[in-house]
Write a structure and sequence with these properties.
alpha/beta; 2 domains; 5-stranded parallel β-sheet; 21% strand; globular; disordered N terminus
């Protein structure tokens, strides 16, 4: 295998994983790809490191000693709604995946996972995060205004706090308000995946979270409508 192009300098990744073989393997892989890596095995230390604000990406196992990944993610989101987080979950447990994404993770990877898939997802999250950091334009649509500088939206005069991913989704849908947007397009343009046909429920779960924040009745959404067979579209 040819050596990949090195990542931009000083891109820092935190790995919180208690299984030695997985943690050590991830350290080797990310170092090989040119990242700076800090790795910890304990949830309490992982919480402390995660709250330090010193990392561009956190790769976070759910099941940890002392403090689990859900609690760490909750704590990070209370302090920083823009911190990129990828969760590692065992066995593809649906409840854990949904709970992890609702806690504020940007994406998840199921164990056992391929190294190539994890690196691709990490690079996508980082690429999108760097791109959006330079894009601070407000967008508005029929009673909604989205402000990336404050990670907030205003819906009919009511302020709504958003995570970075929720804001990115809503802003993209507003900018494409004249048409439906497919899940594959959202994965490509919002998540930054080069292969948008990966098997993931992350789009649907993030849309559900967003609806709970901006819809009067999330079970009968009017602001983000589902277009059967095509994807999602903002409505009035």
């Amino acid at each position: 295998m040819s050596r990949p192009t090195a990542a931009l300098p000083k891109v820092r990744i935190l790995i919180v994983e208690d299984e030695d073989p997985i943690r050590n393997g991830l350290v080797d892989v990310f170092l090989y790809h040119g990242y700076e890596v800090t790795a910890v095995a304990d949830g309490r230390e992982g919480l402390e490191q995660s709250l330090s604000g010193g990392f561009h990406l956190i790769v976070l196992d759910l099941m940890l000693p002392s403090v689990d990944g859900f609690a760490i993610c909750d704590a990070v989101r209370q302090r920083d709604r823009s911190q990129p987080i990828i969760m590692l979950t065992a066995k593809g447990d649906e409840d854990d995946i949904i709970r992890g994404l609702r806690s504020g993770a940007d994406d998840y990877v199921v164990k056992p996972f391929s190294v190539r898939e994890l690196v691709a997802r990490a690079e996508a999250v980082l690429r999108r995060s760097q791109k959006l950091a330079a894009d601070q334009e407000k967008v508005s649509w029929k009673g909604m205004t989205v402000d990336p500088r404050t990670l907030t939206a205003e819906v009919d005069g009511r302020p709504v706090e958003l995570t970075r991913r929720e804001l990115d989704i809503l802003r993209y849908l507003i900018r494409a308000s004249d048409r439906p947007v497919s899940r594959s397009e959202l994965l490509r343009e919002v998540w930054g995946y080069r292969d948008p046909d990966i098997d993931t429920r992350t789009v649907d779960i993030h849309i559900a979270k967003l609806r709970r924040k901006i819809e009067q009745n999330p079970d009968e959404p009017r602001r983000i409508r589902t277009v059967r067979g095509e994807g999602y579209r903002v409505g009035s």
